[in-house]
Structure formats: C-alpha cells, structure tokens
Predict the 3D structure of the following.
Amino acid sequence: MQDLFQNILEGFHLMLTLGNLLAVIFGVIFGVFMGAVPGLTATMGIALIIPMTYFLDPVTAFAMLLGAYKGGLFGGSIPAILINTPGTPAAAATVFDGYPMAQQGKAGKAMGIALYSSVIADAFTTICLIFIAVRLAKIALKFGPPEYATLIIFSMTIVASVSGRSLIKGLLAATVGFLFAIVGLDPMLSTPRFVFGSVYLFDGISVMAVMIGLFAISEVLIQAEQKEKKSTTYVPVSKGGATWEDLKSCLPTIARGSLIGLAIGAIPGIGGTVSSFLSYSEARRVSKHPEKFGTGVIQGVAAAESGNNAVCGGTLIPLMALGIPGNSTTAVLLGAFMIHGLSPGPTLFKEHSATVYGIFAGLILANIVLMVIGSLAIKVFSPVTKLPKSVVFPITAILCTIGTYGFNCSYFELWLMLLFGVIGYLMRKYGFPLAPLVIGFILEPIGERAIRQSLILSGGSPLIFVTRPISALFLFLALVSIFILSSAIKKAKSLN
Amino acid sequence: MVNDEKKKDIKIGIILLIFSVINYNIIIPYYVKGRTLSGLSPIFFPKLATIFLGIFSLALILSRWYSIRNKKEKEDNKGKKKEVGIVSYRSYRVLTTITIMSIYLMLFKQIGFLWATPPMLALLMFFFGMPKFKRLLFFCITTTVILFFLFEKGLKIPLD
C-alpha cells in the first residue's frame, strides 16, 4: 500500500507541470465541444487529436486524450438538456428529465447537477481504477457470452421503467427498436437482413442517425407546429444553478450510478448508453415518487449523468490492466498507447510504472479541470435559453444535419436521420415513448450476438444460461425486477 | 376526448398488427437469408421480434377496445371539430418543415454545405416566425460561416 501511495505521488510529480496542465485544459475544452455538438463524439475527438500527441511525451499525450474523453462524456449532456438532443448516444437518458427541467426554466440547475454528477462519478471510478484495476479486470474477464446475454435480458427490464403511462406502448416501441437494430448484415454469418438490396444498409442503421432523428428532429417538427407570434424564448430563461441542497438530495443516486457505471464500464462491449439507462431505471425504481420521473426530476439527470460518466474509469480498467478495449473510445486509446510505445496489460504496470501513475495523476487533474471548464461551459451555453425559437430550432436542424453527416460522412444517413425524425414525431404525437425504442435498438445487437454465441458453445442447450453462476444471478435479478415492476403496476392501477 | 385517443391507439394497433403479419409472411422470407451452420439461424430474431410486435399490437387493440366498451364517455362535438382544424394546420406546418429539410438534404449533396445552408436556414427561420430581416440575414451568414470553418477546416470533415 505504501508503494502505491509512493507511486501516486511520483505520478503527480511527473504530471504537475505547466505544459501538462495546458494539455489537460485543451483536452477537456475540446472534449466538451465535441460532446456538445450533436453527432460528434468523444471517440472522434480523441481520434482527431491523436496526431497532435505524436511529439509529446506519453504522460502529456494521455493527459490531453483522457481530458478529451472526460470532457466529451459531460459535453453530451448540454444539448440533451437545452435542445432535447443527446450530444452523444450515452447522453440519451439525460434528455428524459434534463429537457423538461429546461422547459421549466431550470436549465442551469440541470446542467449544474449534470456536471457535479459527472465529476463525482468520474472521480470515484478513477480512484477505483487506481486501487482495484487488476482485481476488477480479472472478474470482468469471467464474462462470457452467456453472462452478456443474461445481462442484456436483465437490462431489457429498463423498458418498463421508461415506458411512461402505457407499458404496452413501451413494449411495442422496444420491439420496433429491435427490428430496426436487426437491419444490416447478420452478426454471426454476415447474411443480409432487411437491407432491400441497398449496400448502404449493410452496416446497419447508424445509432447517431437514430438518436438525432428521434430526439432532435422530432423536437424541431413539434416546435414547427406553431408559428412564433413574437420573438419569445423557447424555454423560460434559466434562474440559478444547482445548490448544495440539490447535490445532497442526489448523492445516493450518484453513488448508485457510479457503481453501475464502474461495473458496466469494466465489462468490455457494453458501454455508457446501457449504463446511463440502467442507472436511470434504478434511480426511478428506488424513488418514493417514480411517477415524477420524466417530468423534470433532478435525480433523473444525476442518475443518467453519473451512470454515463462513471464508465470512463470503468472502461480504462480492462484496457490498462489487461489490454482489452471495452468500447470504441478505448479502442482508439489502445492505438494511442501503441503509438507511444506502451502495450497495455499486466506488464504495463511493471515496465512503465512511472508513466502509468503519471496517467492516473492526469486523470485526477482532468477531473478537477472538468469541474472548472464545465462550469464555464454552462455559462457559455446557458444563453441558448434566451434565444427565440425561430433561431434555436432552424440552427438545431442544421447542426443535426452536419453532425450526422460528420459521423460517417454519409449522405444516406442524413435521410435516415430525417426518417427517424418523422418516426419520432409520430410516436410522440400518438403517445409512444421514445426511450424504449432506443433501448431496444442499442441492446439487440449485443444481446443477439451473445445468445447465439452461447447456444453455439452449449451445442444448442439453453441450460448454459442457468448453470453458470453470474448468468444465473442476472436471470434471477431479471425475474426479481419483473416481479417488482408488475407489483408496482398493479399498485398504481389500484390507486387509479 | 379520452375515447378519441383510445380509438387512435386501436388504429395504430391494427396498422402494426397488419405490418407484423406482412413482415412475417412476406418481408422476412424474401429479405432475410436463413442459412445456418450451428446455433440459431439469422432468421430467428427477426421472426421473434415480429411475433412480439404482433402480440403487443393485439394487446394494445384489445386493451383499448375493452376500455372504450367499459367507459362510454360523452364527447363534445364542437370541441372535436375545433381540434380537427388545429390538427390540419399543424400537419401543414410539419409537412412544410419536412419538405424544406428534404430539399436541404438534396441541395447539401448537390451543391455542398456552404451554398445550400444560407437559403435553407433563412427559409426555416422565416417559417418559424423570425420577424426581422436583418437579424435573419445575420444568423444565416454567421452560422453557416462558423460551422463551415469549424467542421471543414477545423475537424477536416469534407462539406463541399
């Protein structure tokens, strides 16, 4: 333990130079910007600044890259709260309560709590990364296809939490999301499914086109229904930010979100979107007023953002301890490690101990910088609420177009974005919740692949899902969750 | 009015039910190739999702139909007529916005972002109710130029 503290101090000694501090500040600012523009992601941000790090020493380079990663995760919440558009897919759950809060004139409060939740969750997982990375990574490695499959089955119970007034409509939306996710080449055999002869659909439907279309373009269409009579703001101007009382009321939610994010992040291939939805669902489940979720509850924002940002430290655990990238961002970071002559894995801690602890110190520094830059970003972006809707929504439409195009440089995806915008608009008009569709769309590919791989492993026997302890545990949790949800629904019906 | 919503739900349920039948019997056999070596076939999940779609659609239809039958509510016909008027006006505005965006997407591909954006942004701003021409011009030009330089020059995303 003493050695560990010695290493951490050495890491800080290595990190605390003016050049490194400037690198972290640049990384965080760039990351927040990338996250705040719908369509641009932290992954793209990191990929874009990697060439700038070629001539820097590894500690400075990773300070910049990880600053961009953290900034990007938080930045996604800004448009989610202000214009009902998740800046990144992982910020989709922030929309549910963030945007209603903005509509009630509490955009500053929502963004403030999003920032605090992000920073606290991130700090928690960074500490976990430093102290228990190797041990946690070994547990995460026990996850095989059956465990993934049952985790996804358990995650599907989120649909009930985000279905709003009608569970049937939520289930229908999730099923439609499932069907959209099937489009493309089969994940196991690469045979075409629902591509209708179009090569553009071979890669499936872009998640960015779905998110931006469903949330942002549908909002533009809803706002287009009525012409602005005079130059009025589209939401009431925000008064005040998050207070200590707000933060205090959210601390248990943030703690839960941090643990969920850490666990989900440590498991390769799941990611921040699932984590933020799970955290949101859990916060709603334990709340004394679950019916208020979705109407602008501050805990809803805290849950989504803590679940989303805690993934940062979580995904770095398998990457640094075992050399396994858990998502696309850490895959890009793995490339950066190799460019700088470092090979992540157990030997990294032995051979490059000073650099590793310098990077850990950089993570903590990036967290502090994020707090400062995030507060400034809130001040910079808050005036959006003062703009009239005749300015905000046309510019949102253009920004969404350029963001969706920038994601894959594909014109076809622009049409998909518009199509999903119309679908989202119709769903909202007819009282269908959007969140279950997004959940179905995101979980289907991971779940289908895992179930099919499991059945290949077991020679077709479904018993594989109950004979392995972790997968049996997830199935049990899913059953408990269904039981609790059904009794809650019965209770609500009897109260009505 | 509550019954109106439920009737709409029934109509949507019927549409989704018909779609699930068509999907199961026509679209999946033609557009999902079902060869398999071991484990589940690629056709399994599309069929499963379609069956669930059908079941949930049927559940929606039956639950709303049952609910309407039990609660016979009187409706205000005058109110209903007024609402129809608003809906058609709103639909016209939404359809116009979709048309403007479709034209923008076509122009985006044909003439590039820099030339397609200012007129389309101006049109959208005017349609959303921007009252002042000078302000409209200012926002159109500054937004286009800032976004162009940010994405094309800064992030190296080819926009032209």
Notes: Chain A is about 75% helix and 0% strand. Chain A touches chain B through 66 residues (CB under 8 Å). The mean pLDDT of chain A is 84. The CA atoms of residues 121 and 239 of chain A lie 26 Å apart.
